Amino acid sequence: MHDMTTLDEAYRRVQEFKRTSLRQTISLLEDAFQELGGNDSARTLEVWPINAGLLKAALTLKVASAQIDGVVHSVGILLALPHILEPDEKVEHLSLAAGNTGRAFDLQTTHRIAEFKFIDWKGGSETIRQNSLFKDFFDLAEYDTPKKRFLYVVGLKHPMKFFNGGRACKSVMSKNNSLWERYSLRYPQFSKVCAFYEHKKAYVNIVDLATIVPEFAATRELLEKSAES
Fold first, then answer.
1. Which residue from 22, 38, 112, 173 puts its CA 20 to 30 A from 205's CA?
2. Of all residues in the chain, what percent carry a pLDDT higher than 90?
C-alpha cells in the first residue's frame, strides 16, 4: 500500500513536469534536445529538472493506478443504476469488472441488457477504443432477447462520429477473428461501419449518461479536459 504523502508528492512532481499541457511540454522537450550531445543533454536535464526522482514519481502513480479502469467501470455502473432502472425493474446479473468477465453483458435486468463504456476519448484515430465499442454494439444488437438493449457512454460526439463514419468493418475486427467470422457470415453486404450501424441502429439505444446521471456531467467535462491536455 502506498503512503498518501508519497502519492501526493508523486502527483505534485508529475504535475510540475506536465505544466499546463503534457503535449506542449513534450513538444518543448523535443525542440530543446534537438542536436544536443551527451554533456549538453545532461545539463538540460538539470535545468528542467528531469531526474530519477521524477521517474520514481511517475512509476509510483502508475503502480497505484494499475487497476483504475476496474474502479471506474464498477463505480460508474453502480452510480448509474438508480437513474436508469424503472420502478418495477430488478437487476438479474451484474458484471462490474472491466474486460472479459465471462458474463454476456455488464448489466442484465428484468427489462434490459446493457453495456457501459467509460472511454477517455482523445480525438485521434482511437482504433482500439472504436473496436471495443463496435463489439459491444454488435453483441447487443445480435443478442436474442425481447428486452431493451442499451449502450451507455459518456458523451455522444466521438461514438456517433465513429458509428456514422466510413471505417471498414474488417479493420475494426482485424484483432478479433471470432467476431469477424460471426459478422462476415451474417452481414457480408455491409463493409463499412456506417452501413451496419444504419441497418441495426433501431435495435440498440445509445445513451449519454451525462444527460441522465448528474455525477457524469462533471465527469464528461473532466474527460474532455483530459483529451485536450
1. 173
2. 60
Which three cell numbers mark 67?
487497476
Tally the domains of the chain.
2
Residue linked to cell 502508475: 62
Residue 201: which domain range? 68-228
- For 94, phi then psi, to 5°, come to -125, 140
3-state secondary structure the chain: CCCHHHHHHHHHHHHHHHCCCHHHHHHHHHHHCCCCCHHHHHHHHHHCCCCHHHHHHHHHHHHHCCCHHHHHHHHHHHHHHHHHCCCCCCEEEECCCCCCCCCCCCEEECCEEEEEECCCCCCCCCHHHHHHHHHHHHHHHHCCCCCEEEEEECCCHHHHHHHCCCCEHHHHCCCCHHHHHHHHHHCCCCCEHHHHHHHHCCCCEEEEHHHCCHHHHHHHHHHHHHHHC
State how far the Cα of 222 lies from the Cα of 229, in Å rounded to an integer: 11
Backbone angles phi, psi at 117, to 5 degrees: -125, 110
pLDDT of amino acid 229? 46
Domain identity same for 99 and 138:
yes
Cell of 148: 431493451
pTM: 0.77
User: How open is the CA angle 146-150-156, to the nearest 5 degrees?
Assistant: 155
Task: Determine the average pLDDT of the residues in 5-28.
Answer: 89
Q: Examine the pLDDT at 2 and tell me if it is beyond 60.
A: no
